[in-house]
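Researcher: Here's my situation. A collaborator sent me these components and asked whether they could plausibly form a single complex. I don't have experimental data yet, so a predicted model of the whole assembly would be a useful starting point for our discussion.
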Amino acid sequence: MKESAHPASRRAAAGAGSERGGPMEERIPTRMGDGSCAFMTRSEIRADVVAGVEAAVKRAKVAPLGDAEVDHLVHIFASPARFSAVDLGDEVILSSDGVGSQEIGSRLDDLRYYEQVICTDTVELYHMDYSYKPIKGLLPFEQATMRRAQLLLTLPCQYGAMPDLGLYTEPDGPVPNWSTLLPEGRIDDARAAQEEAVALAVEDIVHVGESLHAAGADGLNLDTAGAAGDADFLASLLAVERLRALFPEWGIQIGMASEFVLGMHGELEFHGTRLAGLWPEAQMRLAAEAGVSVFGPAINVNTGKSVAWNTARAVTITKPCTVAATVPVHMNVGMGVGGVPMHPVIPVDAVSRASRACVDLLRLDGL
Amino acid sequence: MGGVRTAGDLVARVEMTKRLRLPEAKQYVADRLDCDVFGLSDPVTMLDVRRDLGLGGLSHQDVTTMDDAVAMAAKFRIAEVLDVPIPSVEHFARAVGGRLRAD
């Protein structure tokens, strides 16, 4: 049974058990998927890890983790250490979906700070309106900022935004809104609208990509691909394919929106593969076929379950993807994905454990 | 990996441009820098390696002298040492008429 984090310490909790007439397993501070503290015994953590693996197997039809992998997850999450990390020599690359909060100084200051103080491996220039459609209207400003950034930076600086297919629908965009058409039973109209939006989004992404390459960007990130379903993912794949043909050695990254491609259209295909219902391994294969340099799977978090449960589930679902990968895989391990709590101020104890677990068990190329 | 404190930015460039997975990308960079893979994540090792090859790094006064390459100058060297294309370097070289390129 999990206990909420209250002033009672682990030692006090264990002592109370002793007074009732027997030794009691020590309770270890850990977290729930919403970020709140919970005190669990090692046995409870193991039970959650096993349950998380079982949930993944049932949902995604993947193989379970082995006993040694389960033991390693228990080892990571049963530690009371404030921070957890991979072994020396096992470090991986860190990429990101935008760096800095744009709260202090300029965007250039954010990029420089991440290079010179935080020391990430890459940085990403982004605009607060983080979608390709609005960026199109800001391109000269974004190009000029990228060019200035490139004069100041040594590390790779990519540009990022979201395909965000929903922005192409009425009343914000030119295409009929499939979210209103579908409840009316107008399936064909809804599908036609999505296909029209795909064509518009691809043009915008390619235009922004070409423009940022001309400004010296080291790469382009299509973040939260598939957020609006299979049409959103198709737009991303088609845009990547065109950009790869233009720039054979450019960094192009797809980061997924969630673990499973929703079938809002249901019949869309890329190179003969139906997109609706794809899990990370199949997503990665298509992204690699389109030409990405880096693929980022995203596994959702259940806020009512522990971080150990969520991480075990995320690792189990992602493992077939990393085993089969032909391109670098940078798993999304951030707020609300990859086992990390869904909270705007992420506890470092939780994010370090989730990150370490994913790197250790999945042999990731990056985060 | 530690970014410009180590060789994290260099390994990232190889992943991005050559689409190599991490072990292959690390080995590629180690070979080009003539060091071992373990040293790529070690800031003590990499400070000397980066300085000797002119690959930039932390740019504050305790680490970098006026003789050391930083930012765009370092990226010219990175492009050559790693044999990877860097768009900003190519654009910069074009903008100055190619006069700064070694070739």
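Model: Some features of this prediction you could bring to your collaborator: The interface with chain B takes residues 88-89, 91-95, 115-116, 118-122, 147, 150-156, 158, 213-219, 249-251, 253, 293-294, 325, 327-329, 363-366 of chain A (CB under 8 Å). The CA atoms of residues 194 and 231 of chain A lie 6 Å apart.
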